[in-house]
Amino acid sequence: MLDKIKLADGAGGQLMDKLIKQKILKYFGKSDISAEIPLSMLDDSAVIDDIVFTTDSHTVQPIIFPGGDLGSLAVAGTINDIAVMGAKPIALSSGFIVEEGLSIDIFERIVKSMNDVSIKANVPIVTGDTKVVEKGAIQEFMINTSGIGKRSSLLDNNIKEVKRYRSFNRRWLLDSNLQNGDIIIISGNIGEHGIALMSFREGYGFETKIKSDIAPINGLMEKALTVKGIVSAKDPTRGGLSNTINEFSEKSKVGIILEEENIPIPTGVRSACDMLGIDSLEIGNEGKVVLGVVKEKADEVLDTIKKHPLGKDAAIIGEAKDNIKGVVLETTVGGKRNLHKPIGDPVPRIC
Questions:
Q1: 99-127 residue pLDDT tens
Q2: Order of strands, edge to edge, in the sheet holding 315-321?
């Protein structure tokens, strides 16, 4: 029997890793040798001649949900993938694939939402394309957004500060930059996007209290870079915090210990996950960032983030350790367990 693509192959985690590494990098990974940060590094964006470039396709269901919609998700997600590299996002493209029969009012609402987020983040949408396909060919509406960003003096000054405290030979914020002693910070509550969307989609009722955290984080990243001392950054989308931390550990070749009691999980998210039997650390987020920061600057970075509207619930949640392997979670009951990369996102079709 022929192998076929499964939904979980695009949901983040181990299965998606396998698909990308075995079936995509097999062909594309050898053709990007001119890039400073190539596709084969699997960071959130590529870098060519100090231009940061990323692309993402969005197929969320439903397309309108508590706290956001397909349009706000597409714009914020692409901006965030550029910002976590330490770059300044400067422009976006937008490609629409629309199913025949979609309500014009819903279409216009999505487009307006994209514009609202673009204006809020000060990152214009400058080019795009629209296609309409036969009814049944896709589910309602799909959007591809690509974005470019550029190097800034904030990143340069940040790296100079990092070099005051330890060796550092990279020019961008990469998943592979962590070293022993670096501190892990998350900018706020986890799990809100995935739970809000699934609850609304499946009719569980949590949506009355939980809303998606969709937001562009470029302003927050600029504030953090002003303080300096950041070595890595990543937005914990598909596969959630668990996937992000494991990518840091794998690529940096350093262990990471997380303190469960310090991870900000809203009561509603925790209750929903307990009821549904899923791990809140594996739920996708769309307005958060996980930072690796040199120890000497961690408290100052945290204080600055907490003053930003998107960072009021920020917390130090862990540390890179070269005497452990992989990711270890210190549980609230005093034990320890290995935290593995999820097989896939437990909540499909959320981004």
A1: 999 999 999 999 999 999 999 999 999 99
A2: 230-234, 290-293, 183-186, 315-321, 255-259, 327-330, 336-338
Token pair belonging to 248? 């840091």
Three-point CA angle 201, 207, 211, nearest 5°: 105
What local confidence, expressed as pLDDT, does residue 281 receive?
97
> Where do the CATH 3.90.650.10 domains begin and end in the chain?
154-338
What integer is the mean pLDDT of 161-170? Answer: 97
- CATH no., domain 154-338: 3.90.650.10
Give residue 1's pLDDT: 63
Residue 324, pLDDT score: 95
Question: Roughly what angle, to the nearest 10 degrees, separates helices 192-202 and 267-276?
Answer: 50
Q: How far apart are CA 92 and CA 127, in angstroms?
A: 7
State how far the Cα of 206 lies from the Cα of 198, in Å rounded to an integer: 9
Which string of b and e fits 80-107 if b means at least 16 CB within 10 Å?
bbbbbbbbbbbbbbbbbbbbeeeeeeeb
List CB contacts of 207: < 8 A, sequence separation 6 or more: 65, 66, 196, 199, 200
The CATH number given to 41-151 is: 3.30.1330.10
Straight-line distance from the first to the last Cα atom of the chain, in angstroms, rounded to the nearest whole number: 31
Where does CATH 3.30.1330.10 sit in the chain? 41-151
User: pLDDT grade, residue 208 (50/70/90)?
Assistant: low
User: What is the reported pLDDT for 201?
Assistant: 84
